[in-house]
Amino acid sequence: MDELLQEFISETQETLEALAGEVVAWEADPSDRDRLDAIFRFFHTVKGSCGFLNLPRFERLSHAAEDVLADIRAGERQPDPATVSAVLGLMDRIGELTEAVAMGAALPNENDDYLIAALHARPDAGALEAPAADAAQGAAAPASVARAQASQAAPRTIRLPLSLIDQLMNGVSDMVLARNEMSRKLRERSNDAELDTVFERLSTCVADMRDVISKTRMQRVDRLFAAIPRMVRDLGRDLGKRIDLTLEGGDVEMDREMVEMVVDPLTHIVRNSIDHGIETPERRRAAGKPEAGRLRVEARQSGNQIVIMISDDGAGIDTGRLVDKAIAAGRLTADAAARMTEQEKLDLIFMAGLSTAQQVTAISGRGVGMDVVRANVERIGGLISLENHPGQGLCITLRVPLTLTIIPGLIVRAGGQHFAIPRAAVVEILHDNNDMLQISEVGGAKIATIRAVRHSMVDLEAVLGMEKEPQRVPRAIMVVRSSTGMPFALGVAAVDNHEELVIRPASPLVMASGVYAGMTLPDNGRPMLLLDAAGLASVARLPDVVEDDAARRQEEESEAAGVEMVAALRFEELSGERRLLKLSLIERVEDIDTSLFGRSGGQAFVRLDGRLITVVNGYSTFAGDKVCALRLRDGEQETCYPVAAVLDIVQMPLVPDMVALHGLLSGVSVIDGEHLEVLSPFALFASLPQERPDPARQGRCILVESEDGWTREILAPLLRQAGHDVTLGLPAEAPVDPRDIILCNGPDTAQAGEMLGCRVVQLRASPRAAGPQDGSIYRYDQDALMAAIGGRQG
Amino acid sequence: MDNLYLFAILAGTRVAVEASEVEAVVKLTDISPVPGMGAHVAGLSALRSRVLTIVDVAAIVHGLPTPSDRRGLAIIADISGHSYGLMLDSVLDICRVPEGAAPLRGQLDRSWSPYASAVVEYDGHPWLLVSLPAFIDGASAAQAA
């Protein structure tokens, strides 16, 4: 009996979750027979099972709902908003009851009669007194829901207890460890090729198995979305707003635990959007927008991250009011506010207890809780960013890692022991003999000055109370940034390695120390602790004072000089030259077994993480067992660039001192008196073999400032690569076609272009817009650039 | 409650532990220290793919850490979802005592009183009946202090 009951509970809960969205969709389109049938079936099933299981209240509720739905099916009654609300009310009550039964608690003894009465109340009967029908009195039209993916036939599934999967997972981990140990033993003694082959096969099987098992942890984002349509509908009702909801990307998969962690922040953001972002129909009409607000929730996978975007076309955030509030609350001085950039003002929304809402409503006060949202997202290693268009809408992007348990980490050594630290927390790594770094000590406090920015500095050994071991090689200084506090410099004996780490929670005893975030078991079988950057800072009692002046001054200086500087990696090519490459392109530097490199069809490649990655400079044979390689990524494509040695990180001008287009090079820069060739990032990725759809382009892209180095050496190749017809300079004889697009850097050329009667895309060198009216595009924002060109051509 | 007990010497004292609380007794090989922690946490140790937090019971009870050359055996226990290893001096027997636990008589040393509530008579001696979760609580308290 218990088993049957358990089955009934989990089945009911699951169906309820799936149905919530269906009911709302059905309300929007009452003629949708399939949805009506699905809802009817649910109540019918519940009624059938609970009669058998002797749950009279369930039976009564579902019976009432079934009656009404049967009427609707027969066409004797219309599914008006009041009826839908009442049906939803019944579904909620069934959900509550199910939960109560599941927990073995006493059933909440509220009067079900109200709900049933609400269901039977004909809308023409006038007064609706039942609480569930209250919401329905707001005459707002139903929210409509469009799902980008039509519901597909569900694949065959079975239900398994989680503990079983965890057991499987542990078993496989044990297997991997045993394999590693065996591999060590084998290497030590035998030289038997036959045995090695067999072992290799076993290894592959184990690896495959581990992959498959980790997939069982994955869950479709649909689950995350399931509650949204219902919430949007109810909120829209309560607030008298009309909302068009679009959900996209429900089939993206993410870690089960991650789904749980993202539910709350996502719910909060959606609530905020409806309550404060989207205006009332009257106000929207007045602003010349369609009456129904648009809310779009979209999920997609990007590398090992899940990107969730929540965008609305509401009022956006009024940064002016945000600043006023912050000043009024004494959190900001007027002076500081005047110096703030638009983005910094926007970031005030994350300050605890600040809200732009005129009044705090029951639903949300935008800003109240955004600090909590950010803290929650960052706690799981995610990022949150805002894109604000005052009066036009707001787009919030959440980026969360694919799984909670596997994170890229750096292995550091201190006091003869190894520790891991999340790579996301490390901003940069320097050796303490680097010229850019200066360490001074005063009154026991250590200060590391890196490129004119002063950081608090601590040695990891000092924080953890360990002995500092003498060493001959220079120590490594990491600039570490916790999610909340200030960046600080952390001294360790060495940074040893970079690894994907499987993180597991440490016991509460260990967590209580405050400096550890978890632990991991590397292949060598010795447990390793994961450091918590924020915890280290607080245990070391580092001052949490903003010091942005130095950085700001430096930024201003370089801007004043008219040369924008970017960080670049200085390295030595295998052929011996020293070259530079923009640092932001380099995902990581690693030593790769030379045996993994190969060549096929004239193209060099390397086998990494089970994938073939193109070697962009074409090397496939090396002397020695290992070669140092840069792994580059432009967001989607990945490539590998073997080098002889990585030298250091320097600041180079964004536009090389001397522009010289030659193969992969974009020019020459002089750094510390040394002439260094600069690799062209666009050329690098452009040379990768790929199949790019070549849509029929109509107009040409006219690059007005043909003398400008950047336009010539970076922009032009990029556009050509994307399949555009590029012309440098204004064509002398042929008249400008209205379909042509003019790309330019300065506002005056933009005006000139507009006079010629064709569309103009204006680019700017600074990542930040000069003001809200600034319609230009940051010139390294490839996506926006392509969208602008594509959009304007279409 | 099948009156099955593990009899061991823990922090120099004869103790009995209910067998249901004990998952296994293992010989510790390799303990990675956890710097920044008090002496009550001896470190972490891997048991196959599990990571155990090794707790030094002697340090919790008497405040004296066990020297590293005397770290031999540990009781493995799963306490509120985490795996712990509690270091002990030696194991004598696992045995059923039909009479079960008897009330404690006499003045119990203050350092032991948070952990023991009864005695088990076995082999002609009284053995303190201790509860493993109490040691973990004790360690947390020691940390908070």
Automatic annotation (TrEMBL), chain A:
**Is Transferase there in the keyword field?**
yes
InterPro entries tied to this protein: Bact_Chemotaxis_CheA (IPR051315), CheA-like_dim (IPR004105), CheA-like_homodim_sf (IPR037006), CheW-like_dom_sf (IPR036061), CheW-lke_dom (IPR002545), HATPase_C_sf (IPR036890), HATPase_dom (IPR003594), His_kinase_dom (IPR005467)
> Which Pfam families does its entry note?
CheW, H-kinase_dim, HATPase_c, Hpt
SUPFAM superfamilies noted in UniProt: ATPase domain of HSP90 chaperone/DNA topoisomerase II/histidine kinase, CheW-like, Histidine-containing phosphotransfer domain, HPT domain, Homodimeric domain of signal transducing histidine kinase
The organism's lineage?
Answer: Bacteria, Pseudomonadati, Pseudomonadota, Alphaproteobacteria, Sphingomonadales
**The keyword Disulfide bond appears for this protein:** no
Histidine kinase domain segment(s): 153-404
In Swiss-Prot or TrEMBL terms, this protein is called histidine kinase
Stored SMART domains:
CheW, H-kinase_dim, HATPase_c, HPT
Phosphohistidine modification, residue list: H44
Keywords from UniProt, A to Z, are: Kinase, Phosphoprotein, Transferase, Two-component regulatory system
From TrEMBL, chain B:
Q: Identify this protein by name.
A: CheW domain-containing protein
Give the SMART domains listed for this entry: CheW
Provide the taxonomic classification.
Bacteria, Pseudomonadati, Pseudomonadota, Alphaproteobacteria, Sphingomonadales
Q: Which residues form the CheW-like domain?
A: 1-141
What PANTHER family does its record include? CHEMOTAXIS SENSOR HISTIDINE KINASE-RELATED (PTHR22617), PROTEIN PILI (PTHR22617:SF43)
